[in-house]
Amino acid sequence: MINKLLPALGAIAAVVSFSGVAQAAPVITTTNYTGANMNIVPGVDGTYSADFGKAGIKAGNFEHIYTFTLPAYLTGSASINTSAVKLKAANDLDLFSVTFNGVALTGTYGGLNEAVFANDVPIVAGKENTIVIKGLSRGNGSYGAQATFAPVPEPASWAMMIGGFAFVGGAVRRRNTARVAFA
């Protein structure tokens, strides 16, 4: 009887020791923010500037989605940065990805200090624009961000500028130059 029981117990022990515990998918906390959560300030020349960020982000994976609408066709740039006192400490935050209207921000991901940015991102007048920040907080992480938006010249402005260049070019070409003859 023991001869039959020992192989069965050995087989059970082998199955238990080789079967790993199933890993659950990481939980990602998604938070949606609007323009009201951003400090968006209009300038006198049609530009806009904004600052936003988050402090005290609880431990775990997170996804912060900022949506906002601006009244004019603009081009934007944004930068986001993090810093920590010690790598992998409770106040360390790692950015996994940041997108601005689908454009991935480039820069330094990972490490003690992270800084990512994007330039010349098109902003459509009256449409929802989105900044998505994904990362991992180790307990009390934070990030800061700023963005600037400048007007895009209207097609009529471009046409006028090109016409002006053509006019100046034509005037320079037709100008009679005095020729000096030396005897």
Architecture overview:
With 183 residues, the protein is an alpha+beta fold. Helix content is 20%, strand content 46%. It is built from 2 helices and 11 strands. The chain has helices at 2-18, 155-174, and strands spanning 28-33, 39-42, 48-57, 60-69, 74-83, 93-100, 103-104, 106-108, 113-123, 128-137, 141-151. Strands 2-3-11-5-9-8 form a 6-stranded antiparallel beta sheet, with no helix packed on it. β2 and β3 (48-57) form a beta hairpin.
Question: Gist?
Answer:
It contains two helices and eleven strands; from the N terminus they run αβββββββββββα.
- Low-pLDDT parts are 15-22
Gross morphology is elongated
Terminal CA distance:
132 Å
Beta fraction: over 45%
Mean pLDDT: 82
Give me the side-by-side strand order of the main sheet. Answer: 2-3-11-5-9-8
Query: How many H/I helices?
Result: 2
Keywords summarizing the entry:
183 residues; 5-stranded mixed β-sheet; single chain; alpha+beta; 2 helices; elongated; 6-stranded antiparallel β-sheet
Topology at a glance:
Elements: H1 2-18, E1 28-33, E2 39-42, E3 48-57, E4 60-69, E5 74-83, E6 93-100, E7 103-104, E8 106-108, E9 113-123, E10 128-137, E11 141-151, H2 155-174
Parallel strand pairs: 1-4
Antiparallel strand pairs: 2-3, 3-11, 4-10, 5-9, 5-11, 6-7, 6-10, 8-9
